[in-house]
Amino acid sequence: MPAETPTLPRHIAIIMDGNGRWARQRHLPRFAGHKAGVDTVRKLVRHCGEMGISAMTLFAFSSENWRRPEKEVSLLMGLFVTALEQQLKKLNKHNVRLRIIGDRSPFNAKLKALIDDAEARTSDNTGLELVIAANYGGRWDICQAARTLARLASQGALDPDAISPELLQSHLSLNDLPEPDLFIRTGGEKRVSNYLLWQLAYTEFYFTDTLWPDFDHIALEKALSSYRSRERRFGRTSEQISAAQDD
Ligand code: IPE
Ligand code: IPE
Ligand code: MG
């Protein structure tokens, strides 16, 4: 096995796509697909926690998803509220720490309060770190970090020449987590859709046609098996990796 590929990814980032098509195949409204998608999240979180994966970042709502029909957007927001209300106890039972990334400002007061409460009440848990990206966009993330640095520079607290990739990174969402080792997109599309643009710089990509509500532990095992077969070189040559392995 390549020396630089740990058996298990520490951090998995997922674009949970295909809920609408899953529902359409069953002649159900799109919302039924989103509900089934929440069930998949519940099962997968438990499974990954048991496997010993440290962190999982799930794309639940992109900054572009506001362009969907108003009714779907409001049903999705409602589903987010219900999921937070219903799953908090289970998260604590399974020692999961919850965190939400993205721009919360457009959310209603009830949702904002639920997010704050769920984060606070799971903050001492030491198992899986579950990150939900909601109203998240990779460009927004880089932009808000740049804004913070610009503010510091304009106040005289930061020399613009001191801005390095490491410093910018320290102001991004997920700055305290290892970068994702594995990226999974379900639903067949092969694009990043403005997800973690900076953080995915050296992540291994895995795409599957499986629709998100059908993504079970067997589908996850296929992704993990593909990950294990990769040689992560981080710019080095394959020979260098083998030599390091022989040491
Ligand atoms: C992903 O499923 C969930 C969200 C974007 C909220 P979709 O709703 O995009 O499902 P498809 O792509 O239409 O099948
Ligand atoms: C990406 O899925 C966002 C989420 C899964 C939340 P989309 O279905 O919105 O992506 P595009 O628009 O097809 O790229
Ligand atoms: Mg989609």
List the SSEs and their pairings.
Blueprint: E1 11-15, H1 19-25, H2 30-51, E2 55-62, H3 70-93, E3 97-101, H4 109-122, E4 129-136, H5 138-154, H6 165-169, E5 182-185, E6 204-207, H7 217-228, H8 238-246
Parallel strand pairs: 1-2, 1-5, 2-4, 3-4, 5-6
How would you portray this structure in words?
This protein is of the alpha/beta class and 247 residues long. It has a single domain (11-137, 178-246), classed as 3-Layer(aba) Sandwich (Undecaprenyl pyrophosphate synthetase). Helices cover 45% and strands 14% of the residues. It has helices at 19-25, 30-51, 70-93, 109-122, 138-154, 165-169, 217-228, 238-246, and strands spanning 11-15, 55-62, 97-101, 129-136, 182-185, 204-207. It has a six-stranded parallel sheet, with helices on both faces. The radius of gyration is 19 Å and the shape is globular. The mean pLDDT is 96. One 3-methylbut-3-enyl trihydrogen diphosphate (IPE) binds next to strand 2.
